């Protein structure tokens, strides 16, 4: 049994909060550079170049890529041979968020009550924490700040099995079309299919963490990813909604077994500031 002290968790979360908000993942940078070459609309091409320049400035000067530094979503893969010592791991994560958002001068966006007083908590806590128990003696931590603009445009629908692939495609395209410019395109579209109402939403968000350009290992699902990306980019929304070919950089689909009577589908939209960083403890 390997021991990990909560202070190590707190320090890791603190650093990842800042790193994620200052530095785009390399695959996202590459996708944006490729998008510049593909975009035929002059204004769209200019916007994409500005997005890339903005990311370069953020990384160089260690300032947020976007003023909305997000709800801090944390994915933990906790090895079954790891023992957390020195305190509560969830509190350690929230302390890391507090420190990271204060030290990094990151905007605090979380309110303590969703529909009554809506008072800002002042430190961007509590984080959303998803924990999975895995084999081994390591703790993998992924911090994925999620902005409100793109999260607001996400959607979930309980489709019938008889709706089939066409029903899935229709719902995803409707969701992106309805979102329009609101999620700051070019976007990444995470899609969850199957499971229960909460599982399909979770796997849609996890889909956003997959490396861009890496398709689902199931050939039929990969085919659907490519079809949806092509259809989304025919909508003409374009970079920042000003028109053009590049509305989305990728469509990532994850699936989970479903009940015989159900086919839930969730669409989790991510703006071009697709921030996520990970560390293994």
**CATH fold name of the largest domain:** 60s Ribosomal Protein L30, Chain: A
Instruction: Just give the CATH class of the largest domain.
Output: Alpha Beta
- Overall mean pLDDT stands at 97
Q: How many extended strands?
A: 10
Q: Please report the distance between the alpha carbons of the first and last residues.
A: 14 Å
**How are the strands of the biggest sheet laid out side by side?**
4-2-5-10
**What is the count of DSSP helices, taking H or I runs of 4+ residues?**
8
CATH architecture of the largest domain: 2-Layer Sandwich
How many separate domains?
2
Q: What is the string of helix and strand elements?
A: EHHHEEHEEHEHEHHEEE
Structural class: alpha/beta
Spans where pLDDT lies below 50 across 5 or more residues: none
How much helical structure, as a percent, in the residues? 25-40%
Shape estimate: globular
Describe the main β-sheet briefly. 4 strands, mixed
Strand proportion, as a percent range, falls in: 15-25%
Rg, rounded, reads 19 Å
Would you summarize the structure shown here?
This protein is an alpha/beta fold and 281 residues long.
Walkthrough of the structure:
- With 281 residues, the chain is α/β, with parallel strands linked by helices.
- It has helices at 6-22, 26-38, 42-61, 89-103, 148-152, 164-179, 197-207, 219-232; strands at residues 2-5, 71-79, 82-85, 128-134, 139-146, 155-159, 187-195, 248-258, 263-270, 277-280.
- The strands form three sheets. The protein has a four-stranded mixed beta sheet.
- The longest helix is centred in the first third of the chain and has 20 residues, at 42-61.
- The two termini are 14 Å apart.
- The model has no long low-confidence stretch (mean pLDDT 97).
């Amino acid at each position: 049994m390997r021991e990990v002290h909560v202070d190590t968790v707190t320090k890791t979360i603190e650093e990842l909060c800042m790193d994620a908000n200052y530095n785009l993942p390399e695959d996202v940078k590459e996708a944006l550079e490729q998008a510049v070459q593909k975009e035929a609309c002059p204004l769209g091409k200019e916007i994409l170049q500005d997005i890339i320049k903005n990311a370069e400035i953020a990384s160089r000067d260690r300032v947020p890529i976007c003023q909305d530094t997000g709800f801090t979503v944390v994915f933990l893969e906790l090895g079954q041979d790891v023992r957390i010592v020195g305190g509560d791991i969830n509190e350690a994560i929230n302390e890391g968020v507090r420190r990271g958002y204060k030290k990094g001068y990151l905007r605090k966006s979380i309110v303590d009550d969703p529909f009554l007083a809506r008072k800002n908590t002042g430190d961007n806590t509590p984080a959303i924490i998803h924990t999975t128990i895995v084999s081994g003696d390591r703790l993998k931590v992924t911090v994925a700040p999620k902005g409100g603009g793109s999260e607001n445009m996400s959607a979930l629908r309980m489709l019938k099995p008889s709706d089939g692939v066409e029903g899935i495609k229709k719902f995803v395209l409707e969701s992106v079309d309805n979102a329009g410019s609101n999620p700051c395109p070019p976007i990444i579209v995470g899609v969850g299919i199957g499971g229960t109402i909460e599982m399909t939403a979770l796997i849609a968000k996890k889909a956003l963490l997959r490396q861009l350009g890496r398709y689902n290992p199931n050939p039929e699902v990969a085919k659907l990813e490519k079809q949806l990306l092509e259809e989304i980019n025919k909508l003409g929304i374009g970079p920042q909604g000003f028109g053009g070919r590049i509305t989305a950089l990728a469509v990532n689909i994850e699936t989970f077994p479903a009940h015989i009577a159900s086919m839930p589908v969730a669409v989790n939209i991510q703006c071009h500031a697709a921030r996520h960083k990970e560390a293994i403890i």
